[in-house]
Amino acid sequence: MKKYLFSLLLLFCAVGAMAQPQITGVVRDAETGEPLPFANVFYDDKTVVQTGLNGEYKIPLKSRKLKFALVGYKTQTVKPQRAMQINVDLVPVSYTELGTAVVTVHKEKYSRKNNPAVELMKKVIAAKKKNDLHNHDYYSIDKYSRITFAFNEVSDKTFEDGKLKTLSFMKDHIETCVETGKLILPISVDETVSQLIFRKEPRSEKTIIKGKRSTGMNNLFYTGEILTKVIQDCFTDVDIYEDDVRLLQYPFTSPISTRSAIGFYRYFLGDTIDVNNTRAVRVDFTPNNAQDFGFSGTLYIAVDSTYRVLRVDMGIPGRSDVNYVDDMRIIQEFKQLPSGEQVLTKDDMIVQLKVVDFLHKFQVRRTTDYSNFAFDEIPAKTFKFRGAEKTLPDALSKDEAFWEAYREDPLSESEAQLDDFVSKMQKVKGFSAVLWVAKAFIENYVETSTDPKKPSKVDIGPVNTIISQNFVDGLRLRASAQTTAALNPHLFGRGYIAYGFKDHRVKGLAELTYSFLPKAYLPREFPVHSISVSYNNDVMSPSDRFLPTDKDNVFTSFKWTTVDHMMYYETFKLLYDQEWDNNVRLKVSFKREKDEPTASLFYQPLDGIGAPSNDETLWKKTLTTAEATVSVEYQPGAKWMNTKQRRYTPNHDHPVYTLSHTMGFKNFLGGEYAYNFTEAYVYKRFWLGTWGKIDTELKAGIQWNKVPYPLLIMPAANLSYIMEDHTFSLIDNMEFLNDRYLSLISSWDLNGKIFNRIPLFKRLKWREYLGFNMLWGALSDKNNPFLEENAGDSRLFYFPGKFNADGSYDYQSGVMDGKKPYIEVIAGIHNIFKVFHIEYVRRLTYTENLPESRKWGIRGMFRVTF
Q1: Of the given ranges (8-17, 444-453, 678-687, 850-859), which has the lowest mean pLDDT?
Q2: Is 721 helix (H, G, I), strand (E, B) or coil?
Q3: Which domains does the chain have, with CATH numbers?
Q4: 7: region left, alpha or beta (phi > 0 left; psi from -120 to 50 alpha)
């Protein structure tokens, strides 16, 4: 759901500011010409910035002398007269001038053999085990985290005249970022205080959230939590003692990774300095290939037998294949505990984001402090809660004294006044109307209130279902709405009315849900515990049930094939839904459904003739089923974020396990068949280091009884041009009908591993994508209508197809060869203009009677990734 993040960023751009005049340039080594990262560029008034990993810098123009300084180099001073580019070559200090500090700049070919830097890093890596706090029987750590989201490089002059004059109050909230020297406008701050606890026997590691609060612009949106949670998920805690550091939703190789650091990075010894009164040697490092997802920066290692890491100053190489990150700097401080371990105590991350060149830049700063390390025994009851994380009941109502007790660095003046900032924004003339339109665009729902003091009790939407089309409806209009917790925090209603201009029939949905837990906005918020009853009368194709999005989505309503096998359905459903903090979810439902085939779809029982008849009097008008379903789902470690349409996980790193069973009842509430259907599903993501990731879904199911084809297992076919997860791209509607199946859907995102070696693709930052989808299916003899033994069995139906003008019949559905699976392969490119994913799909089996145009296809989607 990162597309929501960037949609929100685009909204904030509407109130963004123009950048003030800047001095830009590059700082290089005068002897080698190599760019110098982390050099200080500053004025005497203490406005300071540091050069990036490619030596580049940018600083506001001031009528003062500008200085350039770096340890081991002579300081230079210039006096800029206007906005301009100033490139500076710093002269290294000679050995005699430097004394004991020696700076070596390596330009010759790098070698790991007999390299003192590599030998030192091997000892640092070997010493990691000594610093693992899991060696203790117990530990407890207090953690304070703050994330500030801000406009970057703004100017107070922007708000003094012109169209933004009405926002003049904003200049009072502009401040200088001490770390970068740039002017920023904070718009949101999220703070969390938590306690990390661990027990060795029985092993348990949990987080207790003691305090949590959010202030700023994101509170104006129900989906504002998406901005917060995506930022938190992208800019996570960086633990270099782990082999892989998860950052930007991708595993970066740690510079002290036991498994792969020595082969992934190049190391260079630098000078010896004092870090917090401890003698340390500087080790610079950078990835072998600058395009790979890795860090560049400096480690400061204690010059003693402990090989402790004292300080880290690192970022992402400017030439890396990371999107939207203009610059990143991570500064970490470590200290030694009385028990001997070296632990992280302060973790600062500053990220400069640039979505596109013509939009404003943003800054994310994440500050994390660790304190109160304790190894005393922790009562067993402290660990007794489901899941890995628990939020205390009073976490959202902590007073200011609580926050001041945990903050090592106080809030800046602008951060502390964000509530006042938002209040002023809401009073700006026309802001409510702009916000109302923006919410409809971002959240896909229109609120019925524009008064922030009176939250919307009813939301209209989804907006993208208002108009669509299909073969039976023709042009279709739909009006939808849902109630919110502002009306009742326990009782929720939703529904829609739709009309097709081709069949002239009214369709609709009415659903009522009671949540046993009070909700902030909608009943699907984690954890769910609810009971709902619904009535739905509509039309669909059988393949629509596999779409992960709404079947009326206007973008998926356009198909690559004619979908004229459709049915009207009337459904009554009762659902009990409960999930627990450990992400176990139980669903128990009962459903009665009556289907009426329409268009080219018909239900004709086998009559011994051997072929279907065009005589509609022989067709069955409806099919009624009554069934109960029990399903259990487990997603260990998953986090959730809510939208007004559905619930999402911010990433797909966590596995999913699902098991369900459906039992059909004959002669109960009109049910015509007794049947049992069992299905299992497993999803798993595999990270391959610098070779990207593989997502794999394995699914299997069995229909145990003799049933007509509407109750057989249909492939998860996606008939639209839009890529959809969990589906096959080139299988037609009901093309195969099985009573047992096994499917494998697998994709490999190489993340530019190969394209980064090709100059053109490397420049474009395109990334390669491969896919493999397979379906094995079988139809047992008891359900095969083509066998002579079943010719007169009226419990089975002729398979769907079409009658030709001469009265002959062509089957659309067929029986799979148990020894021959269906296979389709995919070759794609994503990160096109940073937002597009295009793929070519090729069908390899069951192509005998297909025209060439049906053997392949082009699919696409918007896809935003770092």
Answers
A1: 8-17
A2: coil
A3: 2-111 (2.60.40.1120), 444-862 (2.40.160.50)
A4: alpha
